[in-house]
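Private note to self, pasted from the team thread so I don't lose it. Backbone tokens:
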């Protein structure tokens, strides 16, 4: 996969993580009944943790999957090349 493809895939993973983080934040706010709005510092900490953590995790996972696929392709190509020499 080209570097541009990796960049796009990483960006898509981050966007999906952001969306997932916002959904998690909405669920937390619903479950607590909006109590987090009482203290803005707690709200900011929870929001950054859920949204930023989700974005970072999904971006990392998407790039890890790409790396795994590329490793498998290289290994398969080496095995094919070795079979041809025998």
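Design output:
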């Amino acid at each position: 996969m080209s570097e541009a493809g990796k960049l796009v895939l990483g960006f898509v993973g981050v966007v999906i993580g952001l969306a997932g983080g916002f959904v998690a934040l909405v669920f937390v706010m619903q479950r607590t009944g909006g109590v987090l709005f009482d203290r803005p510092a707690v709200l900011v900490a929870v929001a950054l943790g859920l949204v930023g953590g989700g974005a970072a995790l999904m971006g990392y996972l998407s790039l890890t999957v790409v790396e795994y696929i590329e490793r498998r392709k290289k290994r398969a190509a080496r095995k094919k090349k070795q079979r041809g020499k025998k």
